[in-house]
Design brief:
With 713 residues, this protein is mostly helical. The chain contains eleven helices and six strands. It has three domains: 152 residues, no CATH class; 151 residues, 2-Layer Sandwich (Beta-Lactamase); 215 residues, Orthogonal Bundle (Helix Hairpins). 69% of the residues lie in helices and 6% in strands. Strands 1, 2, 3, 4, 5 and 6 form a six-stranded antiparallel β-sheet that branches. The protein is flat and about 170 Å long.
């Protein structure tokens, strides 16, 4: 699209380029440098806001065409064309390859495809590594189990249960019998690379395989020895034939050194199954990736067409607006996306710009009507400022300003009536001021009497409050003493309960001792019988049992004494139990008495607490009354001061009323239908005489107020 040259006057209007160079590249390079393009767009928005911010209620002396001069209109057209050229690659500093929007979108698609492919390759590599690590971990476990069997045999050798050669023979048999999977087995070689166990290659047993190599030339057993001697155990990848197979396949081997016997125990597993599983995952993933690539290409193509087409239509619409073709349709405004928003804004700007030109003539007519209205209002206001309230505006205004004329005339009539009322009321104000002054003097005297009465009442309330507060404090102290007594009584009751419990335990102990004494008595009785039987047997023995008879006699005597002592103790215990029962009964009676005392003391405490609470509430109530009286005294003093101020104000008002009469006389008023101005009849203010305050107070009882008569207040 050709870009018209910018007129020279646009430089004075603030356009970023003032050069008459018609070349788009030169002008765009200046206008859309790092800051030029932002300034151009800001100027575009300013032009758009001019017609929005100056409706008919503003700017009565101008129009949108005046506020947007021809130079600015030309500048708007030039800036619009510059924006179009810049957005679609004319003069754009970008590389020519990425100048167009479709190329940019395709570049994003290609970048997404490359990243997706890299991610797919990375995930497949990670999956392969993980599968191999899992297989190596399983081989490590199998090798560890085989080594644990050899360690068990070695412990038997160390314990002397079997010989070393027998243990090795058993170990070979055990390792040969171990199999896993379809072709998994355990083998063993010594540090000289002589095979000791190999289930699938029995002809290798007892031979050195130091020079055995796989299809790629790697010496398998030498590599295993290197890993075992370096790390103790590890994995080795090599190529080896499957049992019954014709070709060698990739295999993962794991070797672990068994130092006590000088063996290296190993195993291996083929990875063909891992490769098959990875291939089963890789093929669907590649198909999915290809489908995704095709979908992205299709979607990007649709997206490019959905963007470039509406943009081209929007560029054409902007060109129409820039060339003042306001009747051209804007298809982009009907869309529901971001381009539709741009189209709607462009349509709104076009409508406002067209409307501004249509409103220019109407605003000029409004300006002329405004000048006439201002002239007539100026004449009326000048007469009003000179005190002439008879001048009104009789010429009819335009409908937009007719209400203003009526309001002015109504204001003049209102002022005329108001000034008439002021003239009539000025005399009455003077009379009322004199009456208010007299009433203020009378009120001042009454207020002074009331203040004196309140001072005496406040003093009496102070004395009563102090007395009630002292009574409340005494009741509180008595309440505390009663509470302490109640607490002591409760503690005594607890002590009595504990004593009852202790004596009950003593009684139980006495009963237990009595039972034990009975057992001792029975034992003494049995001992006596045994001693008697022993004496009889000694007598039968004759001379040989004489010594035994003496001992039996002594035992019988001791049993007799034990029985007597047990009876005496039992008697004492019975007497003690009777005394304990008597003590328990006495303590129970004492506990009941203390419980009754606690209840009575508690009742006394409750009553005294109620008394203390009532006294405290009375004290608080009297304090509040006293505060109220003090506040009332303050208010009375303030009223007295206010009365004096009101008296002074009444005198001042009388003087101001006279001044008002002299000022009102300067105005020329309309004559009323009933004749000239006449003063309104005044009614004198009537004040009821108040009885004198009773300043005498009886000694008892003191009263807060003088009965129910509050006229002194």
């Amino acid at each position: 699209m050709p870009v018209p040259p910018v007129p020279p006057q646009t430089a004075a209007a603030g356009h970023p380029t003032a050069s008459p160079d018609p070349a788009p590249e030169g002008r765009i390079g200046q206008a859309f440098g790092r800051e030029g393009r932002d300034r151009a767009r800001k100027s575009y928005r300013n032009d758009l806001s001019i017609c929005h911010e100056h409706p008919a209620s503003q700017g009565l002396s101008g129009s949108c065409s005046r506020r947007v001069p021809a130079a600015r209109k030309d500048r708007f057209r030039a800036v619009t064309l510059d924006l179009i050229a810049f957005e679609f690659g004319k003069g754009c500093p970008m590389s020519a390859v990425f100048r167009r929007i479709p190329v940019r979108i395709y570049a994003i698609v290609v970048l997404s495809l490359v990243l997706s492919s890299l991610l797919f390759a990375l995930l497949m590599s990670r999956a392969t590594d993980l599968a191999y690590k899992i297989r190596e971990a399983g081989l490590h476990d199998l090798t560890g189990q085989a080594v644990s069997l050899l360690e068990s045999l070695d412990r038997q050798v160390a314990a002397g249960e079997i010989e070393l050669e027998e243990a090795k023979a058993r170990g070979q048999a055990l390792l040969t019998s171990l199999h896993f999977g379809e072709s998994g087995y355990i083998f063993a070689i010594d540090h000289d690379l002589v095979v000791t166990v190999h289930p699938t290659m029995p002809d290798w047993v007892g031979t050195s395989q130091a020079d055995y190599s796989d299809v790629h030339g790697m010496k398998i057993f030498q590599e295993m020895r290197k890993v075992a001697q370096t790390d103790g155990k590890g994995s080795v990848r090599y190529w080896f034939k499957k049992p019954g197979g014709a070709e060698a396949e990739m295999k993962i081997g794991f070797i672990e050194d068994f130092t006590p016997w000088g063996w290296m125990v190993g195993t291996g597993a083929y990875v063909s199954d891992i490769e098959e599983e990875l291939a089963a995952i890789r093929t669907p993933a590649i198909i999915t990736l290809v489908i995704g690539i095709l979908l992205m290409v299709a979607v990007s193509t649709v997206l490019i067409r959905s963007v470039t087409g509406p943009l081209a239509a929007l560029v054409k619409s902007m060109s129409d607006v820039a060339n003042a073709r306001y009747d051209a349709d804007i298809p982009a405004a009907k869309r529901q996306d971001e381009i539709g928003v741009l189209g709607s804004d462009l349509a709104a700007f076009r409508d406002k710009l067209a409307e501004s030109e249509r409103l220019a003539a109407a605003r000029e007519e409004d300006r002329r009507e405004q000048e006439r209205v201002v002239t007539d209002l100026g004449v009326g206001l000048r007469a009003l400022s000179e005190g002439d309230l008879t001048r009104t505006i009789d010429t009819t205004f335009a409908p937009a300003y007719e209400q203003l004329r009526q309001d002015f005339n109504a204001t003049v009539d209102t002022l005329n009536a108001l000034m008439g009322e002021i003239v009539e009321n000025s005399t009455e104000i003077t009379t009322r001021a004199e009456e208010i002054s007299g009433a203020s003097d009378d009120l001042s005297r009454r207020t002074e009497n009331q203040a004196a009465t309140l001072e005496e009442t406040a003093a009496a309330m102070d004395e009563m409050t102090a007395s009630v507060r002292a009574a409340a404090d005494g009741a509180a102290q008595v309440e505390n003493v009663v509470r302490e007594a109640r607490g002591n009584a409760e503690q005594s009751g607890l002590v009595v309960k504990e004593a009852i419990g202790a004596m009950s335990e003593i009684k139980k102990s006495s009963d237990g001792i009595s039972q034990i004494i009975g057992v001792i008595d029975d034992i003494a009785f049995q001992t006596n019988l045994l001693a008697l039987n022993a004496g009889v047997e000694a007598a039968r023995a004759g001379e040989a049992g004489r010594g035994f008879a003496v001992v039996a006699s002594e035992v019988r005597a001791l049993a007799q004494r034990s029985s007597e002592a047990a009876k005496e103790i039992k008697t004492l215990i019975s007497s003690s139990s009777d005394q304990v029962e008597s003590g328990v009964a006495l303590v129970n009676r004492t506990g009941e008495a203390l419980t009754d005392i606690v209840e009575r003391v508690g009742n006394i405490a409750v009553l005294i607490g109620d008394i203390a609470t009532g006294a405290q509430e009375q004290s608080v109530g009297l304090g509040e009354i006293n505060v109220g009286i003090n506040e009332l005294d303050k208010v009375t003093q303030q009223n007295a001061a206010m009365v004096e101020e009101a008296n002074a104000a009444a005198v001042t008002m009388k003087q101001e009323a006279g001044n008002l009469q002299s000022l009102v006389a300067r105005f020329r008023l309309k004559t009323r239908a009933g004749g000239g101005q006449r003063p309104r009849e005044t009614t004198p203010l009537a004040f009821a005489p108040a009885p004198a305050a009773d300043l005498t107070m009886s000694p008892t009882p003191r009263r807060i107020a003088n009965g129910g008569d509050w006229q002194d207040f």
